[in-house]
Design goal:
It is built from 10 helices and 12 strands. The protein has a 7-stranded antiparallel beta sheet with strand order 1-10-7-12-4-3-2. Strands 9-8-11 form a 3-stranded antiparallel beta sheet, with no helix packed on it. It has one domain: q2cbj1_9rhob like domain (Jelly Rolls, Sandwich). A hairpin with a 2-residue loop joins strand 5 and strand 6. By secondary structure, the chain is an alpha+beta fold.
Length: about 290
C-alpha cells in the first residue's frame, strides 16, 4: 500500500469519514444540477414503486427540502457516478465486495430544519483486522453546490462509528451531540463516510440553494432487502433495484457494482415495468420519516 493510501486509511479509521476535494469540475456540477431540476419537475406515475406499500416515493417534499430517489431509474446522466474511479478505488479498499444499494439527491432551501441523529448500521458492522478496514455500508455524498455551516450541511461526530455508548437521543434532537462537527466544502467536493457513523443534517439558515448527490454502497455480505422487508419498508427496495433494461446500458464496472440486482425481484412476475410520464410536477406525498442530511 502506498503512503497516501495508508494515511487515508488511518484518517478514515480514526474519524469514520474522508473528504475528497475538487472531484467534480464546475461544468459537471452544472450539468447534474440541470438534470436534477428537470427530474424534480416531472410528473411520476409509479404505482409499482410505492402505491399501497410503505416506503419511499420517487419525489419527497418536506419542509424546505426536495428529495428524489432511484436516480438511474429515471435518467442515464448519473450512471458515471456509480463507477467514479476515485471513489471505487476506496470502496474496494474498505469493503470486501461493494455493491450500490441506494441513490438519491436532496435539495435544501432556507428553513429546512434539523434532521434526526442516526446511523445506517451498528458499530459492530465496522471492523479493522490486521490493518484491513471493513465497513458494511458506506455513503458517498457529492456536493453540487457549496456546503457551508449555514447551508444545512452534513454534521457528524468523528469517531462515533465505533462508539457503543448510548445517549438519550431524544434530548439531542435539533442540537449537536458532544463532539459534533460540520462537514463543509465547495461545489465539486465529496465526502465518504461509514454508515456506522452518527450523522445528521443541520438546519439551513442561508438563502442559497444546497444540492447534494448520495450514492450508498453496501458489502455483498449484507442484505438490505431483507432488512427493509422486516421493517415493513419493502417499497424502498423498488427504488434500490434497477431492472435489466437499465443495467443493460451500464459499463463493466457499473454492472459489477450492481450485480446483486440480478437476483432481486421487487414485484410480482406479472408486473410490467413502470416509467415516468411527462408533464409538470403533480401532487406529491409528504413523507413523515424522511431524514435530512
Amino acid at each position: 500500500m502506498n503512503e497516501l493510501a495508508l494515511a487515508e486509511d488511518f484518517q478514515f479509521d480514526a474519524q469514520g469519514f474522508l473528504m475528497l476535494r475538487n472531484v467534480f469540475d464546475a461544468e459537471r456540477c452544472r450539468r447534474y444540477l440541470e438534470e436534477l431540476e428537470r427530474l424534480f419537475e416531472r410528473k411520476y406515475d409509479d404505482p409499482w414503486l410505492c402505491d399501497g406499500v410503505r416506503g419511499q416515493t420517487t419525489v419527497q417534499l418536506t419542509e424546505g427540502q426536495r428529495r428524489i430517489n432511484g436516480l438511474p431509474l429515471w435518467t442515464d446522466v448519473f450512471d458515471e457516478v456509480i463507477s467514479f474511479a476515485p471513489v471505487v478505488e476506496r470502496l474496494r479498499r474498505w469493503m470486501q465486495h461493494p455493491q450500490l444499494v441506494n441513490t438519491w439527491a436532496i435539495e435544501k432551501t432556507e428553513g429546512t430544519p434539523w434532521g434526526g441523529w442516526h446511523r445506517g448500521l451498528n458499530p459492530d458492522d465496522y471492523t479493522v483486522r490486521r490493518g484491513q478496514i471493513r465497513t458494511r455500508m458506506l455513503n458517498c455524498v457529492y456536493f453540487l453546490t457549496d456546503n457551508d455551516e449555514d447551508d444545512g450541511c452534513l454534521t457528524v461526530v468523528p469517531g462515533a462509528h465505533k462508539s457503543e455508548i448510548d445517549l438519550p437521543m431524544a434530548e439531542f434532537r435539533g442540537r449537536d451531540l458532544p463532539g459534533a462537527v460540520r462537514v463543509t466544502g465547495k461545489a465539486g467536493d465529496m465526502v465518504m463516510f461509514s454508515e456506522t457513523l452518527l450523522h445528521t443534517g443541520a438546519t439551513k439558515s442561508s438563502s442559497r440553494q444546497r444540492t447534494n448527490l448520495y450514492f450508498n454502497y453496501i458489502d455483498a455480505t449484507y442484505n438490505p432487502a431483507m432488512r427493509e422487508l422486516l421493517a415493513g419498508n419493502q417499497g424502498n427496495v423498488n427504488h434500490y433495484v434497477f431492472p435489466p433494461a437499465v443495467r443493460a446500458r451500464f459499463d463493466e464496472t457499473q454492472r459489477e457494482l450492481t450485480e446483486w440486482m440480478e437476483w432481486q425481484r421487487t414485484a410480482p412476475a406479472s408486473s410490467g415495468s413502470q416509467r415516468p410520464s411527462s408533464g409538470g410536477l403533480g401532487p406529491q406525498t409528504k413523507t413523515r420519516c424522511s431524514i435530512s442530511i
